[in-house]
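Troubleshooting log. The previous run stalled partway through. Resubmitting the same two chains, unchanged.
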Amino acid sequence: MNATCCSKEREIMILACSGGSNVGQLTNQAAVELTREGFGKMFCLAGIGGGLGGFIKSAKDTPQVMVLDGCQVGCAKAIMEREGIPLNHHVIVTDLGIEKVKDRQLALEREDVLTVMRAGKASVGERAGL
Amino acid sequence: MDIQVLGPGCPKCREVEKLVRTVAAELGADVTVVKVEDFQEIARMGVFATPAVAVDGEVKCVGKVPSKAEIAGWING
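Second attempt completed without errors. Output:
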């Protein structure tokens, strides 16, 4: 935030499923890193999923919302659909050629994080720059 | 009726506060306008971007300056 404007103009909202698998955690890590580098700002999907009005209104009033789902189950997408929030930019990690592994390691490969970040950027029409 | 204008105090926030007060006065409405600048409180309300406006605790708009017609609609219910 600066002296002339409360919030960055047309900030991209990033919503990650952050699920309990490697691909779910890849969405979380990609969202964190995209936020850190200023591409967009991660927001609380749980608030929307919990039906909290302010969170839902925030998502509805944000022109650019990027949704990252780990797998085809599409939990984040389902939350958006249930709340009537348009799904304009949607990435499914397993569609990127990354295999879902449900073990206790939740290990993330660096190249996979970068792949999800690139796909997220591409979904909103930005050049990846990675 | 309580109307909260949420934002840290930039020109857009101040514009929204002024607009809300103006519309309330024009309508002769019994409205209390409160400016909320505390980040923790703004975050608790689930606001992604400011300025934002809430009416009796319900977030009505986020990340934009609402029109006078919108504000009048909230006040008139």
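Takeaways: The longest strand of chain A covers residues 65-69. The CA atoms of residues 7 and 70 of chain A lie 29 Å apart.
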